[in-house]
Design the sequence.
């Protein structure tokens, strides 16, 4: 049994980022720590491997059998423990291996670090065994990381981490940087290795669904505090803490469409008094209520709220006909980059007022399609036509100046990108940005306040600069900017993929609201079937630059006819269904 | 890709040779007068000199004739002392090669380990000391440093000779010590900064965290970092060789060393056009070859670049 | 060409010592920043004073030649022509500092203009500007300056103009790289989709984000220009013999260093101190200029 007691992480100015976490990982079992960004889950992983970045310090203890380690131990002590006792697997396989060393050498380094003296031949066969364990061919030993795919690199990293034979393997978001299908394979591999080696695994993730069926226990953290700990399956089925329940509810489902996705309201951490009547209940150390042995929740004054009608109303699946009143028609679009066909005869139609999805894995060409529609990418062949309500008739200089990139009218089509951090100019104030966009739509700058309230932002934020805003707020500003010209079509290119689930739910609801209110059509590009299910009426499934299937979202996502769509759906539903 | 680079280098050298030729052709002052000096000149003599130097030919023919000469190793004749430029150059080359080789070795041997050590102990006393030194070395012009060293170690302390190159290898090295140190200070400052920056960048990267996270020993981690940092350091060090050219000219002047730099400075002041042309082109060629070699080294050191180049 | 680009970035990064958002920039203690700022203020004062003192400073008196340091009325002694070293150093500040300032400013403006055009428009504009800067960077600045200034002669301001052109090559590269990086970001693409003019995007959107880099690079260039210009005047290029200039003083002081080392030390230390101070202030300024910082 591995026990962590009173793990806290402090900044050098004294601020507490993680407060007194305590949990156990039974031998040969797995624990998942779940939390949104800023919950301190990654810092927890770093703290129990003695790898906190400079400026942060840990306190508390971790116990392996009869060995107890002070988390504040100096580097020299940790160095002896990492590898054989605890090893940490990082999130990004593209940066976690040294780019100039062969994979075999990097695995061999872990073996050598244990101090066992091996001959060259013994070392080589040990490396080969390591590679075989993660289901990689022996030739990988001679390859450099750059020659491997992301999934293979993460396998090499796992082999390197396990070569030192750790008692506890910490995997920090090990699959977040990978495609859904690769994700599933890797998690399965991790599960197999855990059982075979009878080691303990600590899985860190932001994704509740991912954990289902892949961890024995689960610890839910929020702002550095433990909310709930218990057997994974039962906690996920019947969350006892309102935060866990909210987190679960705000994850969209690929199976049913809700009128409104439940939003997780910001959780007020208890201030001074505890209304629930616990004694010894302080904000730093909230009282803990045990539900049954091995399952407890911490007290907060967060009463939770029931789900509203809209949040439980399942939208009836109605057949969606091909649109008559066509706003956008993409016909046989082709585009290749460096010999690779990104778009290979793609035809897509968006009707006026429709919400249409494009779904596919990375490399499917979906983003190229979105970019081509707004004019950021040219086509090699094929056509993109708009039928705007008020077609531009004048060809004077004034009209030309209002033209967007590659002749698109900025009042017809606008786009919202994925990354909320780089999609706003860091040097510009929010009001300047919006006023500029309003001017394009021939609207007065005084409409800034109206625009802000439409996307649910307080008027005070008008004077803010992007770095003062949270990710969700930035994405709202980006949406406001796109709506400033009153466009008829809004392109969303993975617009919620970089957000936490609670924020994702808010943005998806906002988009649905805006669509209803302004009658704007939406072309939503995403890799996430559940998101597509919630926000679109019709969907196109893309693979290798082609549309392989299209139709009503409800039909395609319940009874797909193409095997690829079926595989995608299986990978996505795995999280929800495995029980 | 590599062939393209070589072609690019050749094109660059040809354009440079045109510019160098044109520049000096356009130089003010009458070349013929310069050649004949203060003697009384008759029109016949002028015509003879013009014919001798090919000055009566059209510009492009003059250029081609000159270029043809350069390619076949004939760099023309010095106006100042009427000897072939090639011989003059060879005569002066030894000192310069020895000086710059010594300076480069000195700078690399001292600066690279210091830069790496400073990065491994970021913020420590050593790091602060080295930072101070490197900003000093970057800010101080080589001739000023040279003169200060000359005063302190040659005039005041009399440890080193004031000027000249001495006889025999040991004596020559002793004579070249101060000038080499002068160049090495500027060069070393750049190298320290380069190494420190490169090492720091590697130290904060994910693969170092992962190496520590799976229990690699400190020595293993250091080796991992140094091997990765070597890429920018080695390529950067090759390129800073070009920075050496400017300071060599100045340092040779300060210490009155009869090297190529001194030759260039004298020829410029005397407006000895053929020598200046030849020297400038030769230096440009050396720098271009270094840049090419650095690219090759890059290919050798970095599997990512190799992968990309092979893929394309 | 990718390797070539990377390595110019490597060297520029190392010489600037300013990784993204100054992550690897040195943090100088407050005291050294204060000293540097004071030094620069004094240097500006000296430049302002130099027209006032120059007549007196240039007055020659062979009878007073080679007075040693510490002589009353001539604290730093006199040079070979009997000129007061202290006064001469104050008078020489104008020639030694105003030119480098103009070089740094001029090359920054050229760099911002051409670098922005090349980085934003790419294509032919980029190719032409890129080859132009390749050509300028093919030879060391000091070498080209020696050859051109030496063969063509030309006065002080011609030399300054020449150095502006030569220095601008590295500015163009740095600005171009920064603009290319910015131009690929979604905020620029959003502006394009909004149909804003390229001039508006280049100078209204991208420029404010590139400016901090350009300003710190300008400071770095100012320090390098002091070194370059004084090197030329040390060789007797760009300034007339006998005029007040630190590089010139060094060349003259060399002959009498045994009699009055201050004739050598004063200008040498002045050049080094001012260049150092500018570098320190540059390192100190970069994190303060960067807006909010990126993620």
Sequence:
């Amino acid at each position: 049994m591995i026990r962590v007691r009173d793990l806290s992480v402090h900044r050098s100015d004294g601020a507490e980022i993680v407060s007194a976490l305590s949990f156990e990982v039974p031998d040969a079992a797995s624990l998942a720590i779940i939390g949104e960004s800023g919950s301190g889950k990654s810092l927890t992983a770093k703290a129990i491997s003695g790898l906190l970045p400079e400026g942060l310090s840990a306190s508390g203890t971790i116990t392996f059998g009869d060995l107890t380690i002070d988390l504040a131990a100096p580097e020299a002590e940790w160095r002896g423990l990492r590898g054989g006792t605890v090893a940490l697997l990082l999130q990004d396989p593209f940066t976690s291996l040294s780019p100039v060393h062969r994979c075999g050498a990097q695995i061999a380094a872990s073996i050598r670090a244990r101090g066992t003296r091996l001959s060259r031949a013994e070392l080589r066969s040990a490396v080969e065994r390591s590679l075989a364990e993660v289901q990689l061919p022996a030739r990988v030993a001679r390859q450099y990381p750059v020659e491997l795919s992301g999934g293979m690199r993460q396998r090499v990293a796992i082999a390197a981490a396990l070569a030192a034979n750790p008692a506890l393997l910490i995997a920090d978001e090990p699959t977040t940087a990978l495609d859904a299908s690769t994700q599933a394979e890797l998690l399965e591999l991790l599960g197999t290795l855990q059982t075979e080696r009878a080691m303990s695994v600590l899985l860190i993730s932001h994704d509740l669904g991912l954990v289902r069926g892949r961890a024995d226990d689960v610890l839910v953290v929020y702002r550095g505090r433990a909310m709930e700990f218990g057997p994974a399956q039962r906690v996920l089925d019947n969350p006892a803490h309102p935060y866990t329940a909210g987190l679960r509810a705000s994850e969209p489902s690929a199976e049913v469409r809700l009128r409104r996705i439940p939003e997780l309201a910001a959780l007020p951490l208890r201030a001074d008094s505890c209304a629930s009547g616990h004694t010894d209940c302080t904000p730093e150390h909230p009282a803990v209520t045990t539900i049954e042995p091995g399952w407890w929740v911490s007290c907060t004054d967060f009463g939770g709220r029931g789900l509203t009608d809209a949040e439980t109303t399942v939208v009836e699946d109605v057949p969606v006909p091909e649109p008559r009143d066509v706003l956008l028609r993409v016909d046989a679009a082709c585009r290749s980059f460096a010999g690779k066909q990104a778009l290979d005869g793609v035809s897509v139609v968006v009707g006026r007022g429709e919400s249409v999805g494009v779904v596919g894995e990375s490399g499917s060409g979906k983003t190229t399609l979105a970019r081509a529609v707004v004019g950021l990418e040219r086509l090699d062949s094929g056509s993109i036509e708009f039928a705007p309500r008020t077609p531009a008739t004048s060809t004077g200089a004034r009209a030309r100046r209002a033209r967007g990139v590659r002749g698109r009218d900025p009042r017809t089509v606008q786009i919202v990108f994925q990354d909320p951090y780089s999609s706003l100019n860091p040097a510009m104030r929010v009001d300047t940005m919006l006023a500029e966009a309003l001017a394009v739509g021939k609207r007065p700058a005084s409409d800034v306040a109206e625009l802000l309230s439409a996307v649910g932002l307080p008027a005070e934020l008008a004077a803010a600069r992007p770095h003062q805003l949270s990710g969700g707020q930035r994405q709202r500003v980006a949406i406001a900017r796109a709506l400033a010209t009153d466009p008829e079509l809004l392109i969303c290119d993975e617009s919620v993929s970089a957000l936490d689930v609670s924020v994702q739910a808010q943005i998806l609801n906002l988009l649905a609201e805006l669509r209803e209110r302004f009658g704007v059509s939406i072309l939503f590009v995403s890799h996430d079937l559940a998101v597509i299910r919630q926000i679109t009426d019709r969907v196109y499934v893309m693979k290798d630059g082609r549309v392989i299937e299209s139709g009503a979202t409800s039909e395609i996502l319940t009874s797909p006819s193409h095997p690829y769509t079926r595989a995608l759906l299986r990978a996505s539903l795995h999280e929800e269904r495995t029980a | 890709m590599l062939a393209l680079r070589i072609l690019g280098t050749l094109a660059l050298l040809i354009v440079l040779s045109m510019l160098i030729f044109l520049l000096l052709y356009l130089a003010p002052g009458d070349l013929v007068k310069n050649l004949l000096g203060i003697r009384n000149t008759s029109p016949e003599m002028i015509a003879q000199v013009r014919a001798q130097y090919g000055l009566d030919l059209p510009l492009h023919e003059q250029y081609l004739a000159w270029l043809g000469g350069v390619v076949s190793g004939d760099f023309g004749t010095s106006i100042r002392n009427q000897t072939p430029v090639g011989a003059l150059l060879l005569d002066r080359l030894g000192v310069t090669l020895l000086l710059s080789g010594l300076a480069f070795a000195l700078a690399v041997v001292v600066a690279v380990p210091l830069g790496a050590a400073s990065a491994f102990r970021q913020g420590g006393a050593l790091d602060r000391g080295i930072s101070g030194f490197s900003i000093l070395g970057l800010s101080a012009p080589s001739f000023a440093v040279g003169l200060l060293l000359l005063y302190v170690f040659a005039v005041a302390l009399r440890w080193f000779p004031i000027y000249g190159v001495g006889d025999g290898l040991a004596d020559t090295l002793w004579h070249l010590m101060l000038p080499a140190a002068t160049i090495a200070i500027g060069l070393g400052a750049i190298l320290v900064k380069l190494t420190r920056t490169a090492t720091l960048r590697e130290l904060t990267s994910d693969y170092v965290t992962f190496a520590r996270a799976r229990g690699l020993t400190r020595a293993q981690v250091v080796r991992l970092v140094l091997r990765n940092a070597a890429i920018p350091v080695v390529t950067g060090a090759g390129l800073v060789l070009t920075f050496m050219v400017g300071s060599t000219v100045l340092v040779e002047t300060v210490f009155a060393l009869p090297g190529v730099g001194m030759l260039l400075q004298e020829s410029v002041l005397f407006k000895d056009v053929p020598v200046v042309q030849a020297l400038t082109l030769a230096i440009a060629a050396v720098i271009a070859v270094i840049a090419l070699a650095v690219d090759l080294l890059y290919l050798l050191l970095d599997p990512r670049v190799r992968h990309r180049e092979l893929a394309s | 060409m990718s390797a070539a680009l990377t390595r110019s970035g490597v060297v520029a990064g190392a010489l600037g010592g300013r990784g993204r958002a100054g992550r690897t920039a040195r943090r100088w203690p407050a005291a050294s920043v204060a000293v540097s700022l004071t030094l620069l203020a004094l240097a500006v004062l000296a430049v302002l004073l130099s027209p006032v003192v120059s007549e007196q400073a240039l007055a020659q008196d062979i009878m007073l030649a080679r007075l040693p340091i510490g002589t009353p009325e001539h604290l730093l002694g006199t040079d070979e022509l009997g000129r007061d070293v202290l006064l001469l150093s104050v008078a020489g500040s104008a020639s030694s500092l105003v030119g480098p300032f103009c070089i740094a400013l001029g090359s920054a403006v050229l760099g911002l203009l051409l670098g922005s055009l090349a980085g934003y428009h790419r294509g032919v504009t980029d190719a032409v500007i890129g080859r132009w800067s390749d050509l300028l960077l093919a030879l060391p600045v000091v070498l080209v300056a020696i050859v051109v200034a030496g063969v063509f002669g030309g006065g002080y301001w011609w030399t300054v103009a020449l150095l502006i052109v030569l220095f601008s090559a590295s500015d163009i590269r740095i600005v171009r790289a920064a603009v290319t990086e910015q131009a690929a970001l979604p905020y620029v693409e959003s502006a394009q989709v909004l149909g804003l003019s390229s001039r508006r995007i280049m100078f209204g959107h991208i420029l404010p984000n590139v400016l901090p880099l350009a300003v710190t690079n300008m400071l770095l260039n100012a320090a390098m220009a002091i070194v370059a210009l004084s090197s030329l005047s040390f060789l007797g290029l760009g300034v007339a013999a006998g005029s007040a200039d630190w590089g010139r003083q060094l060349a003259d002081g060399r002959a009498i260093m045994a009699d009055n080392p201050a004739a050598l030390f004063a200008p040498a230390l002045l050049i080094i101190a001012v260049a150092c101070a500018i570098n320190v202030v540059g390192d100190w300024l970069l994190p303060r200029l960067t807006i909010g910082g990126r993620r």
Observations:
- Chain B touches chain C through 70 residues (CB under 8 Å).
- Residues 165 and 173 of chain B are 8 Å apart (CA to CA).
- Chain B has a mean pLDDT of 85.
- Chain B has 13 helices and no strands.
